[in-house]
Each structure stands twice: as C-alpha cells, then as structure tokens.
Amino acid sequence: EQVDILRKVEARSKHLLNLINDVLDISKIETGSLELFVEENVNIGDIVRTAVETAQSLLLGKDVAIIHEVPPDLPPLTGDAQRIQQIVLNLLSNACKFTDHGQIHVCADRLNGEIVIAIRDSGPGIAPEDRELIFEAFRQTKDGLRKGEGTGLGLPISRRLAEAHGGRVWLESVVGQGSTFYVALPLETCLTPTI
Length: 195
Known about the structure:
7 strands; five-stranded mixed beta sheet; 25% strand; two-stranded antiparallel sheet; alpha+beta
C-alpha cells in the first residue's frame, strides 16, 4: 500500500515538474532567452526510440499500440538533442493522450534536405478552426479541456523549438479519423556546435 502511494506521489510530482518546466520554457522562448545546446551527429533514430519507450507508460490501460519506423541510414542532424527529444515527446504524448484505441504510428525519413518525423494517431482529430489555436500558448481544444491534463503549452513549445532549429511543425487531420503531426528539421543548418 505504501509503495502504491509513493508511486502516485512520484508520478504527480513529475507531472508538476513538467508543468513548471513548460511554463519556464515558454517564458524563455517569448523573451528570446532560450539557448540551444547544439551538437553534431544527433541521431534521430535514437531520439524516436527513446520517446516511444517513454510514451509507453502513458498508454497503460489503453488498447493502443505504438509502431515506429526509422530507416537505419538516416543522416545525423546538428542541433540540440534534448530539445529535439522534447519536440518528439510532446507530440507523441499528445497522441497518447487523445488516442483511446487503435495505433500511433511514428516514422522518420529524409525528404528534400530535411529529416521529417511524422506522428499519426487514430484519435478524434482536430477541427479546421482549432488547427492554429492549438499552437497558441495556454490554448486547448474542447477535447483537450475535457481531458483536463496539461497546460496547452506542449504544441507552442514544440513549434518554437523546431523554428529555433530552422525547422517547422504542422499537422493534417480529419475529424473522427485522427491527426498527423509533422516535424521537419533541416540537414544543412546555420547552427554552430556549442562545444
């Protein structure tokens, strides 16, 4: 019984820490004080695998499978590996939150000088009028408010972090059929390694 209580306390503490970190991140981004720790040879395959492993715990009790496909020969990126991990995990966490059954498919590939990561879910989809709103800080769709989790900062942070790398985040969605979120990060970048 004590172990169960301690696990719940730990999970809630981590949730609060994540909320605080999100608020701090959006504050840094909006004041222009966010700094990237840029390194060479960032392996997208490793980032996707780690994000999928982390996200599995968000699906406990749900009939949802995460499938991931990353070619082994993807070229490495120059960027902030921790922040790229944050982007992928934010998008994957949202997919887990809104998918109650079916599959979440994560893939990455090289396309037109970029690495494009796609996260497709079988959730409720996003109405056209909400597709830009969800990228605004502290804004959520009605489904997001009903779920009662999070602050509405994950998507704005992800988009801004991708833009800080010279990339972008966008989505395609059909109401009732799910959503696909894309992250494109350039292979050629003007970012210089921090060390």
